[in-house]
Each structure stands twice: as C-alpha cells, then as structure tokens.
Request: fold
Amino acid sequence: MAIGVFSILFYTASILGFGGLILLYIIKNEKVKNILFYFLSILGIIVSFEGFISAPTNDIVGKIILAIVGILPILAIIIKNKMKLDKIAYILVTITVIVSILKTFSII
Reply:
C-alpha cells in the first residue's frame, strides 16, 4: 500500500517538476515564466523538505544536501527580485528541482 502511494507521489512530483522546467525555458511570456518560477520554487522547497524529514537519521550527508538544496529556491527568489538576474535564478531552481526529486526518491 505504502509503495503504491510513494510511487504515485514520485510520478506526480517528477512530471510536475520536469515538465515545469521544460516550460520554464521554452515559454517566452514573462508573466507565465514568473508563475512557473514561483511554482517550481515552492515545489523544490516542498520536495526537499519531504526528503529531509523522510531520510533516515543516520544519513547525515543526505540530510545536509537536501537542506542546502531546500535553501536554493529562496536564494533564487532573492536573486530574481533584488538583482534582476533571471537566468541565474532559473538555474538555481532547476538544480533544486532535479536534485531534490532525485535525492528524495533515492536515485542519487
């Protein structure tokens, strides 16, 4: 039962994350890009937090990686809003989504 729920969660997070990342780089409309950017930032924070709390207590390195990855979207939002460096912010969110999904579901 739990494995089925876990696999549904994995597929949902993967489709939303990777699909959103593809759209983030393809779409030209800035308003839609902003919505996708904030959505992916929140998704990255949630998935990295989920991975952090579900990791075993003896997996210190994995927890540190997920904690650092969970902070990256916050830095990306600050960089996008204060410094107006959109490409760097998009790259940080991309790293967050990919690493948090792969680390949370024990692929890396």
Summary: The helical segments are 2-26, 30-54, 60-83, 86-104. The chain has one domain: 2-104. The chain has a mean pLDDT of 87. Residues 2-104 form one domain.
